[in-house]
């Protein structure tokens, strides 16, 4: 794997003794969109802040495009653009100047044409001479992205990019992210919105209590864990599950009127036809038959709230 970020045995214990990251090993592929998915306080911001060199690691090592982010801090930081969660912007500066100034912080020469291009890409160009205080929240968020891109980084971190933004802006955000990816930028975003990971990511890493529970190609994750259920309602209660259905992953409701069959939706043979045939042979009249697809959201809820079985086994 061509990793642009390589993290080995990373731990972070804050000064108050709180262990926010526990022995994290993680490789981020060049050019991918990786979603770091986890509940509040899982350690997402700590992880990206540590990679970006804002928080110092207690243990472990991080290579950013080959640069050790502690020993070669500047070279590592140069590769990274970071869009923070909070709207931290001055009030009176203009859009153009604030983005251009950020570029200067990286020791780069002014490049008005580059800044103009970023502002155009982010639909901020006609606001370039506006003071920041005159912008809406959504526009301010775009300015944060523009700042993060001012030094043309290879890697962009977006910390909960769509928290509190409206649907239109969210769609715009994803267009921007996709365009950046097409231009070769690696993107890591944190989120607790599962739909976001489902919509945009190539890979999903689930983080909980400072540990990576799993990291998987989104599609494979869906295939691996995406189970489907066939729900069959009977006109009369079923006396017992016919023994011709031994081996099927079946459960029966308490009133014996609803049977749930869990199957792998990606398998060649789902077993549905046989199951319905066997029920017919057993003389059961059906009232209703439907299927439900478990989404990545269900998977996530399972992983985060279900302490047992251990996540490694689930993955
Ligand atoms: N400077 C600090 N000192 C002590 N504890 C901290 C510090 N910063 C963060 N923490 C704790 O570390 C844990 C992880 O926080 P972090 O902000 O990384 O989580 P997160 O996954 O980004 O959460 P959220 O989704 O709410 O932003 C939390 O329990 C938080 O309270």
UniProtKB/TrEMBL annotation:
Signal peptide: none
Ranges where the ABC transporter domain occurs: 5-234
Family annotation (PROSITE patterns): ABC_TRANSPORTER_1, ABC_TRANSPORTER_2
GO MF terms held by the record: ATP binding; ATP hydrolysis activity
InterPro entries (UniProt xref): AAA+_ATPase (IPR003593), ABC_transporter-like_ATP-bd (IPR003439), ABC_transporter-like_CS (IPR017871), ABC_transporter_ATP-binding (IPR050763), P-loop_NTPase (IPR027417)
Pfam family, one: ABC_tran
Record SUPFAM superfamilies: P-loop containing nucleoside triphosphate hydrolases
Domain of life: Bacteria
Alphabetical keyword list: ATP-binding, Nucleotide-binding, Transport
Name of this chain's protein: ABC transporter ATP-binding protein
């Amino acid at each position: 794997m061509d990793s642009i970020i390589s993290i080995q045995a990373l731990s972070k214990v804050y000064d108050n003794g709180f262990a926010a990251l526990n022995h994290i090993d993680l490789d981020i592929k060049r050019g991918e969109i990786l979603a770091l998915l986890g509940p509040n306080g899982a350690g997402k911001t700590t992880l990206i802040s540590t990679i970006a060199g804002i928080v110092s690691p207690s243990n472990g090592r991080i290579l950013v495009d080959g640069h050790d982010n502690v020993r070669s801090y500047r070279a590592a930081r140069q590769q990274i653009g970071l869009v923070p969660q909070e709207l931290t912007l001055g009030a009176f500066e203009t859009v153009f100047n604030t983005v251009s100034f950020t570029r200067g912080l990286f020791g780069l020469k002014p490049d008005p044409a580059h800044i103009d291009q970023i502002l155009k890409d982010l639909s901020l160009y006609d606001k370039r001479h506006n003071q920041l205080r005159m912008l809406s929240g959504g526009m301010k968020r775009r300015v944060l992205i523009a700042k993060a891109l001012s030094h043309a980084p290879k890697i962009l971190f977006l910390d909960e990019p769509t928290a509190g933004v409206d649907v239109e802006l969210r769609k715009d955000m994803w267009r921007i992210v996709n365009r950046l990816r097409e231009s070769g930028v690696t993107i890591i975003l944190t989120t607790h919105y599962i739909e976001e990971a489902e919509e945009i990511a190539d890979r999903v890493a689930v983080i909980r209590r400072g540990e990576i529970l799993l990291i998987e190609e989104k599609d494979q994750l869906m295939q691996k864990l995406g189970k489907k259920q066939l729900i069959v309602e009977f006109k009369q209660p079923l006396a017992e599950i016919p023994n011709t259905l031994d081996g099927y992953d079946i459960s029966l409701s308490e009133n014996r009127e609803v049977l749930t069959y869990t199957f792998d939706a990606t398998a060649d043979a789902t077993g549905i036809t046989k199951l319905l045939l066997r029920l017919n042979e057993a003389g059961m009249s059906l009232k209703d038959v439907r299927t439900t697809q478990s989404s990545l959201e269900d998977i996530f809820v399972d992983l985060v709230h279900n302490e047992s079985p251990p996540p490694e086994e689930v993955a």
